[in-house]
Amino acid sequence: MEKHWIGGKYVRAELGDQFTTVSPAHDTTVNSYALGTAKDIHRAVQSAREAFDSGPWPHMSGKERADILINIAHQILANCDELAELETLESGKPITQAHDEIKTAVDVWHYAATLARQLSGETYNHLGPQKLGFVLREPAGVVGLITPWNFPLLIISQKLPFALAAGCTSVIKPSELTPGTTLKLASYAHEAGVPSGVINVVTGFGDPVGACLSEQPDIDVISFTGSTEVGRKVAATAGKNLKRCSLELGGKNPHIIFADADQDAALDPVVFGVYFNMGECCNSGSRVLLEESIAEEFTQRIIDYSRKIPVGDPLSAEVKVGAIINNAHLDKINHYIQSGTACGARLRLGGSQLPTLNGRFFEPTVFDQVTGDMPIARQEVFGPVLSILTFKTKEEAIQIANDTMYGLSAGLWTSNVDTAFEVSRNIRAGTIWINCFMDGHPELPFGGYKDSGLGRELGRFSTDEFTELKTVQLHIGKHSHTWL
Q1: What is the pTM of this model?
Q2: Which member of 90, 101, 215, 248 is catalytic?
Q3: Regarding beta strands 287-291 and 346-349, do their DSSP bridges make them parallel or antiparallel, or are they unpaired?
Q4: Cβ atoms within 10 Å of 20's Cβ, excluding its own
Q5: CB under 8 Å to 317, separation ≥6 — which residues?
Q6: 8 Å CB contact between 154 and 76
Q7: In the annotation, is 436 catalytic?
Q8: What is the three-class DSSP state of 238?
């Protein structure tokens, strides 16, 4: 896999240089990949441009494209074990979660296939007896897709099949930490019938590969998932080039537990919500807001339950929390632990790296006595660290929930339907879970308010990001000249 995927085949990098991925859990080399350059991106973009301007993909019927997307889904499922192992080795996530991620991705590809047959415009026959109006929905062109390391196959599957369903071609830049499954996906798609040049993958680092992709004049749409900091740079570059840009960025998601909630039902989702994928998840429920009357008891239940979570080798089927992606990210988590203690939060559980011979494993960590002005309550830790805050009224809960720059998702637990709808309507976030948490379905759109991003993925609106509207007006019959 030491090559890019360009024009329907593996090709050598411009300079022939390589880089390697390292297992976060084992400190062993996983694979070598081509080290991309600006020229490699230019070559990939030209391949995608030619495939869009002169190739068959944009002109295929919806059924033809749908059939190919379904074939890709079958290919992914047929190779689930291989993909899951590669994801686990490169990302450190537990193997059972990797399997679940890939099966979810398969479902997304199947759903996107249905949209390929539903793309439509509008007609207007009330413009007058001699006028007809048509609004056509056409593919936007070449899309640049930039994906992160935490859910490599799932996140590209929240972008690529919808772009393909719309008739677009693509250039993909996966994270340098986890590029393996994206390259395999490109080859599976080719085997499934995607024409050469429709999907291109260039591996390498954000600078120069990601930056160059964002700057390419022949790119029509940029879709980026990653940190808010980098997302701002991508948006700025897209703005300079007048390119459409969709962004799925960070989150500091509140998980609100009211006193009248079914606390037995809420406990597992609360703990799952913060420690799933080692907390390296934009949807992580990293802020739990407890009504004061239940705060002490429910906090203790969270701590007791968190102690039982198996942490260790992600290749073990029993493990629920795997390895932290790299040393730089481990340092970031440690910084927030120190910040929480320095600001006066109380460390109730964890707070340290586990002593292991290989890899980077961090204890499930719980802070209480957290206030809304603390960095651990406002900033995205992206690790297995839970901050517990308290509130007296639902109005205060809403205020605390909204008091960050993010607005990706939120969860709330209550037996009162009025509370459920009042709170969900007043929290500024793209997804609200009521008496559940982190459930997902490809039919439902995903994205955020505020600094959590722009645009939406999944759902029937997802293809809007990858299409243009064209107005066509038709005159019927004789013309009457009225100018002179």
Answers
A1: 0.96
A2: 248
A3: unpaired
A4: 11
A5: 95, 96
A6: no
A7: no
A8: helix
